[in-house]
Amino acid sequence: MINIQIENIGKVKEANIILEGVSVIAGLNGTGKSTIAKSVFASVNARRNILDKTRSDRKLSIDDRIIRWMDQNNNLSGDYYMDITQELATHILESFENEKWNKKDIPKNIENIIEEYCQNNRLSDQGIEEVSEYIVTVLCRTMDEYVNFFVEQYYQSVFKNQITPIRGKGQSSVHYYKKTEDERIIESSVAIKDNKLNIVGKPLIFQQENAVYIETYSVLDFCEETGRRTRRGSYLNRMTLPARELLNSLTEEKVLSYDEQQKVELNEKIAQDIVEQVTHGYLRKNQNGSLEFLDKEAEEKIEFSNMSAGLKIFTILQQLIGNYSLKKGDVLVVDEPEVNLHPTWQVVLAEILVRVYKELGIYILVNSHSPYFIRAIEVKMAKYGCALQGHYYYMEQNDDGFVCKDVSHNTEVIYETLYRPLNEL
After folding, report:
1. How many other C-beta atoms can be found within 10 angstroms of the C-beta atom of residue 412?
2. First to last CA, the chain
3. DSSP assignment, residue 388?
4. pLDDT grade, residue 263 (50/70/90)?
5. Residue 72 in 3-state DSSP?
6. Ramachandran angles phi, psi of 210, nearest 5°
7. How far apart, in whole angstroms, are the C-alpha atoms of residue 219 and residue 335?
8. In sequence order, what DSSP letters do the residues of 46-109 get, joined into one string?
9. Cα separation of 38 and 365, whole Å?
10. Which whole-number Å values give the CA distances from 265 to 323, 360, 402, in the listed order?
């Protein structure tokens, strides 16, 4: 079970979201549903690959400083120049990690490595003290500093540097709470003030679960453009962070562990059911490494621009499940999936999402303003014997913001609001 508590972000004054099955946030447009979805997504993923990111950042910083130092003291050609700077930076970092240097020995160890390297390659070591001092600073940065830096960077990227309240001032916060199957408690909090984020309490480094966010527009619409290499960079830059990560998940060829391989049949069964019920085709990589859709019956490629908008959400789900991008304990966030779906397909999608939770153990968070879809979630959760793991929320206006109210025991509040325009007609 995962619990995300949100305060004072965007239009949202307060939200307390429980993920232990399928959770639905209902409400009108512009009430903060997507803000909550982004907060949940960021709180789960912000700590992902922190150790790898830290090592890459240290390597990049050291490499960049050595390049500038070498450039000042040596006359080297381009390729050789890049090779030796990267080799030296790697050697310093690996020695630091593998030999477990004491802090007091770091300056001397760095100078010894650089001096020896320069002697062996007939390079000048003039100004070695200055470059060594900078590398010491990089290596002595604490893991807490790096965690805070990367977590803030992730949140700011998700929210496009607009994480503070839309109206008024004050502190914003997101609190992540997880209770594992063996009853362990994992917690992490961030506080944001004046668009500056700080971690509250002890930073968490390791992360097991992953979050995937499917936004209202289809990331598949970018695939035709990203496949054209001359414009690939510009289109990737236009995509949101969740969309870029989703595209990576769709194209990823994951190497499964032994344990994962034993469970993959469950994923394949749901993916195959989607093929037979809805898509009648599948995604594949072309010779350029870009995605394309192959119609199984016609045995021909269908351009994404020629696919129905409603078909794309099923195609994305099919790929994520089939290539094991989603596994037990992960979080799937879907923003208004009913967009472009006929009510009949809304019911089909609701059942697929319930099965994804029930059979694969993946937590689902869905934003919606469709009474058809929300009711279908309720009915299917009961059908699969997991009604108690369903949580339903309604965005209620409160002064100059919105509060996410838990209405799991009174979902009629949702239907009364969403059916009102039809009843008034």
Report:
1. 8
2. 42
3. G
4. confident
5. helix
6. -130, 145
7. 13
8. TTTTHHHHHHHHHHHHHHHHHHHHHHHH----HHHHHHHHHHHHHHHHHHHHHTT--GGGHHHH
9. 11
10. 11, 10, 42
